[in-house]
Amino acid sequence: MSENGSPSGIAPLPGRDGHVGGIESMTIDGRRYYFGFDYKGDMVVSPLIDDPDAMAAFASEHMLLTDGAHDAAYWRDLVDDAVRESGLCYDTDRVLTSERLSREPMPPRHSHLRYLLGTLTGHWDEWPPDASLPGNWDLLFGLLGGRG
Question: Most buried in the list 20, 21, 38, 86, measured by CB within 10 Å?
């Protein structure tokens, strides 16, 4: 058991435990990250997780599917699916590089990244300069020209 009381050692984002959702993934500077997403509620429910088994364990502890809870083995298949396809965006929008993002003052208004930032904070139109992202999502600010 971890310090946060979770067998996986990974806590959901504050107030986002037990959501019905799925697994999404993106690549940041060549490293694959997974995250839980509540499609109906338009919200990210987990930190970025770079280990597929840890993502499956997190999902089995903190997420539900429309038919209820499932074990880590079941979720692991969904983690693998998240590498091949997304329920949120096109594949090209799931590959981020610090080089590209550091040139952009803010992700374009209708981009996948801007959408994710909005689902994390509730700020859909303006991005406040003093905003912080929950969990380890702050690493995105480092990519966005060092803001955050």
Answer: 21
What is the torsional sign of CA 104, 34, 93, 41?
A: negative
Compute the distance between CA of residue 9 and CA of residue 102 in angstroms, rounded to an integer: 32
| Helix (H) or strand (E) segment spanning residue 38 | strand 31-38
d(CA 78, CA 102): 32
Kindly report the pTM of this predicted structure: 0.84
> Could you give the CA distance from residue 128 to residue 78 in angstroms, rounded to a whole number?
34
* Domains of the chain by residue range: 19-143
Predicted confidence at residue 23, as pLDDT, reads 97
Handedness of CA 25, 28, 30, 31 (dihedral sign): negative
Which run of H or E residues covers position 26? strand 22-28
Distances (CA, A) of 56 to 36, 52, 60, 82, 105: 10, 6, 6, 11, 34
Please report which confidence band the pLDDT of residue 63 belongs to, taking 50, 70 and 90 as the band edges: very high
Task: In whole angstroms, give the CA distance from residue 86 to residue 2.
Answer: 30
